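Dear colleagues,

As part of the handover before I leave the project, I'm documenting each prediction I ran so the next person doesn't have to rerun anything. This entry is a single chain, and its sequence is reproduced below.
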Amino acid sequence: MGQLARFMRRLVQEPLPSRRRDGGGQQRFRSEETANAVMTTVCELLRFGARYGWVPAEVAAQLTQQKYLAYLPPGYNAGEHRQFRTVRARELKFVVVNDGIDWLTFEEVEQLLAVTDHARDRFLVALLWCTALRIGEALGLRREDMHLLSNSRSLGCRVEGPHVHVRRRLNENGALAKSREPRSVPVTEELVALYTEYVYEREQVAEAINGDMVFGNLFRGVLGRGMTYSTAKDLFDRLARRAELTARPHMLRHGAATAWIRAGQPRDVVLKLLGHLSSSSMVPYIHASEADKRAAVENVAARQGGVA
């Protein structure tokens, strides 16, 4: 256990390899959340080894301890006789304070769009906001998924209006849709116009003209090849610095879902748009701003005649 504890500390104390070819740049370190994910994998591997006699059983026994769940996570079934309230919790982990999930407002998305240099980047940001796609779903889009006419029956599709299809499949760039269930997501005429601008830009790069992926490398890397997760992250990091705000692809998904819910859209519709199967998956997407919380308190106080 001592060796594992030292390994866990090293995960956050030792800098990560530089992303630059010359080895320079600012040092980067793993977060405690990332270290916990690594330790989960290591501990599960040791427990697996113990079942086959490759790891001493006493080592595996020390990896977890019995814990009673006083507060149940949303959607957790404790069993008819509460027998599942006692679980085995991992012993080696950092205690991480959950500050909640960040999300972007419409105004912040406009800030991001204002600092983009290329039509491709504007379309990617706008697509994530308009459709709430996961970044893996967006990067995995192929040209055949873009049904942007008012009627797509000529393509063998009965979905009315402009929309995109999200399908889980293997892609050359490693992008993968999380949900195994295919779905279609409507898009706006404004997004169609941005896609038209992007197609014109893409056609100026010879290597990208015949590419199958919607998002490809047009300016750096192997031109024409499908855009990867790391390329998309680097793009958002640059845009965030220019706009002077924190912005990650998944924050647009949360922002879009929050906007739909605040606009009064039915929860079951938002559930389908997000590609979720369970209503409990919606919980992380319900965000309340400071203004929302203040309005709630003041509205109730007004009804009660200002007791406090």
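The chain has two domains: 2-90, 106-259. The first strand starts at residue 64 and ends at 68.

All the best with the project,
I.
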